[in-house]
Task: inverse folding
């Protein structure tokens, strides 16, 4: 086979390779098919239906009698008899923009802190020390607890009367009076952020740790021989080399943070200070009689996340194969 | 689930061939709080003994808004797994299409119930649900503390504020640093709508949306009511009260850390349980009145009902269950063990009920004058209207805008929603 190929003229050789490629592509398609069908059924169809609903006047009690209304759910400009122009629809709704702002704020701060803390944890875990295996397993516990359970747990810990955090703060003299963490609009977002950072830092640390372990040890040895300061080593060697893994970890977390629902729904369900796009959409879809408006908000949420991902991949040149492009 | 049920049904009919073949397997959802679920289970055991039908309880979160969202989703999807729903008094107009008409099945017993409660569950001539119990809130007060400081049970909200403040300050000076004056339901949810409707109504400020659909909330009396309530936060009520639902306020109260509490009667039996710090030290009274023109004591009408899903594969057995849970004997046990207020008139004269819950004698009058939430005029928009209302109130309580500003905005929002 090899000797024959070597004898072949260049053109034929290319042809042969592409035939083989074509065969492999055909086979690959068959292997991909079940997954594509599954994706189409569980993700594609609901998504398409949600988008369709956002262009109708659908009600939850009457899903099949919906009528097409175009972009009215998104934005409608009406001129009243008095000549005044008013704007209606989700894009003109201050609640929606408040939710967008909350979501972006939440995503920014949570991912920033998770990245910094995750990096620190990963660097510690990357060092050789006794009992490293146990510490690695232990640090994953917050990530392993279902969000609903940890959110409930934290909501009791944050409680102003029987919460352990206030009790500790008072005993240590850090707090003058118990703070109602989840109730007060000033602290609600902080409380949610703390719980989310607590929960997801292990995930970040794990992904970064995987990246750190790919860095060859001899680079550090060479740097040590040259007498490079450890802090300089971190910024000149570790950070550039771990960057591809870090970028992938960040995008996972940002996508997750942009659709945050469960944590906020349990901790501060109706606080305007923390209401995110998903919480608002759920409220309109199922609590209120606004299924079409809720669908519109879901669609906008989807578009925002898609847009963000595209910009991020384009700007950050993220390569999902794990290496820098 | 459906197939499982079918299989189980087939198996039962195969093994028990005759007699038990018509025994149905039912499911009931309930978001009851406290010991309510255990009580429901004991009732279902009696039902199973009487009829042979077995019933599974599907527990739900205690927040009525959470329950509603889930039920609505299930009903819209035509879910056949749940046969009987425990429904809040305000849901009837919103979910009427999805439940069976019980007026024929309940024809014999309908007259036993209070007409106003039956009316609240009747939508366009259709009896949507059978009343299980009714609810009207009470002012729980620590009679030991009131006696110690020589105070009367407050008749108005400002008296309550003054009394609570005085007792709280005196007790704190003596070392009870965790003591608060008054706890209520201040989280931004349906419970706050109930609480705030009482304040507004007790000041003669109407009922948010009147029965004829007029939006009445933006008036000076309502503003006065909310200003009074906002003055409690941080003085006699903890700031955390803005996140309390029923169970959180009961938690503070039952640890002996509150002089007054606004809660539903279910808390009466629980506060008298053996592990309660306030056992035997408290009593209940009607909620205080407001001040100014039209001021009167007021309470929001609550209550839970049993509705049969129109998608139930066993509608007859499910109807039987709903009727059983709303029957006089079941309501009597409920009144004695759970201290829930019966919707059946005769039970308020029943000696055993009055022995177990002496306060009920006074309650008949209170809930008959209780103010209904505007679920009938708001129809399908009730939840959104209620959410607008509780948000405006919550903003006012947390100092985010004045009462007058928030109610003015609320009026505009409600007009947009309903017109």
Result:
């Amino acid at each position: 086979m090899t000797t024959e190929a070597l004898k072949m003229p260049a053109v034929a050789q290319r042809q042969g390779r592409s035939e083989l490629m074509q065969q492999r592509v055909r086979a690959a398609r068959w292997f991909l098919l079940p997954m594509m069908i599954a994706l189409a059924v569980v993700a594609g169809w609901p998504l398409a239906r949600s988008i369709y609903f956002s262009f109708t006047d659908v009600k939850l009690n009457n899903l099949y009698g919906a009528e097409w209304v175009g972009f009215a759910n998104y934005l409608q400009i009406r001129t009243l008899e008095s000549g005044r122009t008013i704007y209606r629809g989700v894009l003109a709704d201050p609640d929606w923009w408040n939710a967008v702002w909350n979501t972006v704020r939440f995503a920014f701060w949570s991912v920033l802190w998770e990245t910094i803390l995750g990096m620190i944890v990963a660097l510690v875990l990357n060092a050789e020390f006794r009992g490293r295996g146990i510490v690695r397993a232990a640090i994953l516990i917050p990530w392993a607890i279902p969000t609903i359970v940890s959110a409930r747990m934290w909501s009791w810990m944050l409680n102003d009367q029987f919460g352990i955090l206030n009790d500790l703060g008072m005993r240590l003299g850090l707090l003058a009076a118990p703070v109602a963490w989840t109730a007060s609009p000033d602290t609600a977002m902080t409380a949610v952020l703390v719980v989310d950072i607590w929960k997801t830092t292990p995930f970040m640390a794990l992904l970064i740790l995987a990246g750190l372990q790919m860095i060859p040890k001899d680079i550090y040895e060479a740097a040590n021989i040259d007498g490079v300061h450890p802090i300089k080593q971190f910024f000149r060697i570790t950070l550039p080399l771990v960057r591809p893994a870090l970028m992938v970890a960040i995008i996972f977390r940002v996508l997750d943070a942009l659709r945050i629902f469960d944590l906020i729904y349990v901790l501060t369900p109706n606080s305007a200070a923390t209401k995110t796009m998903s919480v608002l959409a759920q409220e309109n879809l199922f609590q209120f009689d606004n299924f079409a408006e809720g669908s519109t908000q879901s669609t906008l949420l989807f578009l925002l996340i898609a847009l963000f991902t595209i910009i991020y991949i384009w700007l950050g040149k993220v390569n999902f194969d794990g290496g820098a492009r | 689930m459906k197939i499982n049920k079918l299989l189980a049904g087939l198996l039962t009919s195969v093994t028990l061939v005759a007699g038990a073949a018509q025994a149905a397997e039912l499911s009931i959802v309930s978001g009851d709080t406290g010991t309510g679920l255990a009580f429901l289970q004991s009732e279902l055991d009696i039902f199973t003994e009487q009829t042979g039908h077995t019933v599974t309880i599907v527990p739900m979160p205690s927040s009525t808004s959470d329950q509603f969202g889930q039920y609505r989703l299930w009903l819209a999807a035509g879910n056949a797994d749940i046969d009987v729903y425990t429904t809040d008094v305000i849901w009837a107009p919103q979910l009427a299409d999805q439940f069976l008409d019980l007026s024929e099945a309940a024809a014999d017993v309908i007259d036993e119930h209070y007409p106003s409660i039956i009316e609240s569950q009747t939508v366009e001539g259709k009896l949507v649900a059978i009343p299980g119990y009714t609810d009207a809130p009470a002012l729980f007060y620590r009679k030991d503390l009131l006696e110690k400081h020589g105070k009367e049970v407050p008749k108005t909200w400002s008296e309550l504020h003054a009394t609570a403040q005085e007792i709280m300050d005196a007790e704190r000076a003596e070392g009870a640093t965790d003591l608060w004056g008054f706890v209520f339901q201040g989280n931004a949810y349906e419970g706050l709508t109930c609480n705030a409707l009482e304040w507004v109504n007790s000041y003669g400020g109407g009922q948010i949306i009147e029965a004829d659909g007029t939006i009445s909330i933006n008036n000076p009396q309502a503003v006065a009511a909310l200003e009074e309530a906002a003055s409690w936060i941080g003085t006699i009520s903890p700031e955390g009260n803005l996140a309390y639902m029923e169970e959180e306020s009961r938690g503070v109260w039952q640890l002996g850390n509150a002089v007054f509490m606004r809660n539903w009667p279910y808390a009466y039996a629980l506060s008298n349980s053996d592990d309660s710090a306030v056992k035997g030290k408290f009593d209940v009274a009607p909620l205080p009145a407001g001040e100014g023109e039209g001021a009167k004591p007021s309470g929001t009408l609550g209550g839970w009902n049993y509705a049969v899903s129109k998608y139930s594969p066993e509608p007859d057995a499910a109807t039987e269950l709903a009727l059983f849970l709303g029957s006089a004997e079941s309501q009597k046990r409920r009144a004695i063990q759970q201290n829930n207020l019966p919707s059946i008139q005769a039970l308020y004269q029943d000696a055993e009920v009055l022995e177990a819950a002496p306060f009920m004698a006074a309650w008949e009058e209170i809930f008959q004058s209780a103010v209904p939430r505007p679920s009938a005029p708001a129809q399908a928009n009730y939840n959104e209207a209620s959410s607008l209302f509780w948000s405006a109130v919550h903003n006012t309580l947390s100092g985010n805008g004045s009462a007058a500003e928030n109610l003015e905005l609320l009026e505009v929002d409600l007009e947009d929603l309903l017109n």
